[in-house]
Amino acid sequence: MIPNWHGVFPAATTQFRDDESIDIAATLRHLEVMIRAGIHGVIMLGTVGENMSQSIGEKVSVLEATVAAVNKRIPVLTGVAETTTREACRLAEAAAKAGVDGLMVLPAMVYKSDPRETILHFRTVARATGLPIMVYNNPPAYSVDITPPMFAELADEPTLVAIKESSENPRRITDIVNLCGDRYILFCGVDDLVMEGVLLGAVGWVSGLVNAFPEENRLLWDLMMAGNWEEARRVYRWYMPLLHLDTHVKLVQYIKLAMTETGLGSEKTRAPRLPLAGEERERVLRIIRQAIATKPVCRAASA
């Protein structure tokens, strides 16, 4: 069965205590705020969730707690970002036992696989469980590109149901549709290209800044879904300086700092990620504080 995945799926943060231990209670409190704001699903342990900074035991603990707290109100997916295909399958199996509704699978980390290796990786993980999978394509971050012809080749794997397209090339959405029709559920994975992605056919948005601005994020989505493009552009232009923060190598620190400024979480990360300092910190704070001071009025989303 193809899942009904659509709308805003936060790439949720993982909250840490001062000693870098995982604060599951704080992670779930923040998730509940986003659920109340109207998110349509959630992706735990993605890049923003600091997947690669956690052990498999920690990841399973986060997932078990999340599944219990969400209690089927929205779909719960988990990122699968491991250094080997074998470990990716192991995590996929553990996540299935933890009760998640789906996986967001990345290429194997560190090693830059070629197309043949990349396709085998996704085929192997796809067959490790019966869970539906969102394929995460982010060549700017991970240097592995899953091209539209590769998605056409993978179309015979029934559990590969969705694509998080983060190539920063909006043409890709049209190219995928032209090659694969409606075979895949298309999600925009780049915050500052979401309006372009929706106009080209994306039905979902894996968002980072929603962690700090859940109400405004939902407002923008609702305006786009209602076809109220004039009002949506107004909100998008306000949001854009924040959305640009999602495309930087320090997106985790930037998003967590924004969460701190909006009172929704801690900026604590696990080393080697460190808190922002000096001019960089002041520059990012100016962007965040200007956005807070000029937040849009949440007008009706109807056209």
Walk me through this protein's architecture.
This protein has 303 residues and is an alpha/beta fold. It has one domain: TIM Barrel (Alpha-Beta Barrel). The chain is built from 12 helices and 8 strands. It has helices spanning 24-37, 56-70, 85-98, 115-126, 139-142, 148-154, 171-180, 194-200, 214-225, 229-243, 251-261, 278-293, and strands at 7-10, 42-44, 76-80, 102-105, 133-137, 160-165, 185-188, 204-207. Strands 1-8-7-6-5-4-3-2 form an 8-stranded parallel β-sheet. Helix 8 (194-200) links the parallel strand 7 (185-188) and strand 8. Helix 6 (148-154) runs parallel beside helix 7 (171-180) and helix 9 (214-225) packs antiparallel against helix 10 (229-243). The two termini are 33 Å apart. The mean pLDDT is 96.
Radius of gyration of CA atoms, rounded to a whole number = 18 Å
Please trace the helix and strand order, writing H or E for each element.
EHEHEHEHEHHEHEHEHHHH
Q: pLDDT below 50 for ≥5 consecutive residues: which ranges?
A: none
Strand content: 5-15%
Structural class: alpha/beta
What's the story with the biggest beta sheet? 8 strands, parallel
By DSSP, the count of extended strands is 8
Return the CATH architecture: Alpha-Beta Barrel
Number of helices: 12
- Widest β-sheet, arrangement of strands: 1-8-7-6-5-4-3-2
Shape summary: globular
User: Mean pLDDT across all residues, rounded?
Assistant: 96
Helix content: 40-55%
Report the CATH C-level class: Alpha Beta
At the third CATH level, what is the topology name? Answer: TIM Barrel
CATH superfamily grouping? Aldolase class I
- Termini separation (Å)? 33 Å
